[in-house]
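From the shared-data thread, chain only:
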Amino acid sequence: MESNIFEKIKRVHLIGIGGTGMSGLAQLLLSMDKKISGSDNNPSVVLEKLKKKGIPIFCPQKEENICKKIELVIYSHAILPDNPEYKKALEYNIPLLSYPEAVGYVMKKKRGIAVAGTHGKTTTSSLIVSVLKTCGCSPSFLIGGEIRNIGNSGVGSSDLLVVEACEYKRSFLNYRPEIGVVTTIEEDHLDYYRDIEEIKSAFRDFLNNVEELIVYCADDRNVLNVIKTIDRKNMISYGLNNGKWRARNIKFLKKTSEFECIFEGKKEALIKLGLPGVHNIKNALAVIACARYLNLPWEGIKEGLEKFNGVHRRCEILGKAGGITVIDDYGHHPTEIKCTLQCIRNMFPDNRLIVVFQPHQYSRTRFLLKEFAMSFSDADKVVVPDIYFVRDSLMERKLVNARMLVEKIRKNGKEALYLPTFDEIVEYLYEIVKKGDIILTIGAGPVDKVAYGILKKLRKKYGIKDA
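Structure, as tokens:
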């Protein structure tokens, strides 16, 4: 589809409009004077919010929702070709675009900032949004996580568009941003990619699509391997040990960090970051590199980083009861688990840490089984439920299971337990927890139900009203 055709189209229908990215895209298209409708199979708060904005919502999805007056249908990655609305659109010869394809068309009319990487892209893109907002830039944004007190998407008055750029199925190759950021490159999505070399090839293609500035982490070996193949002058590096932008004299407080920001050996600013963890300092450096390229003032950059409240399900303290702290995190890759556990250890060095980890995808668990088993060195006890089933084939489910992961964790010297259901885990935790314990639920699936479940029981036990 040509860009000018996309601009002329007025009536757009979104299949799977209740999804994180799709709901944000719907609002962005609405601001572009498109007439939007959408459908989903599951009622949600998100759908109610979209209805209040005047968007007709159909629930569930069925072929009658598609009429010949619709000029374009956009579908989420979760929608398969056998979807009734998808099939009806094909029957009516209505143009179809995937979510990333549609975002790519929107970005052509914007100054895009696309943040890619195996880890850190949600937090980094969220921090960029916080800094841009604080500096009065009013960006639009589409992010995979929910920024506390802001949300996962927004429509701004400027031409800046911040997008979290996912590498799965090479989705990010639909974007041609002004600024492209790469935080890390590791093995992941091995149900789609053959190996790390194919993953690096995809990131190379992404960076070749960047129109102005490439910002990259010079501490990451795979990122450097890719950068060496890019023939571009306008590139800025960052890192703790390497790069033009660096951090020194780092101090970790209970829930925040502090460091001196250095550019080419010269101190530029003292940064107070509203997040803990070494990995978040790297994320902040990436943000600073982007912000200074955009000539944003240090005062606004510092304020935007300091007042940032974090992203939902990123090392999020959900509550306390009886001296027990409950934390939830979205981490679903071995490196993310290690970073989160190290971060919590810095916050609570002397407390017992009980981790409930729900593996996400059978294929990811199988390919990275050894790495997963080694990622819990900072935990005192690990509880593992059944693997969250998404995208995998039935054959894949026969090749690996949660018990296998538990056995490998035990071989690494850690206490580990397999309990198949969330209800069983909540009951188990309720029996064993004591004052001072930290409970962490971690995973990309709905494992946060365990966190809320145990918190509810503990609050009832100690006579604390639910927040």
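The chain is about 35% helix and 25% strand.
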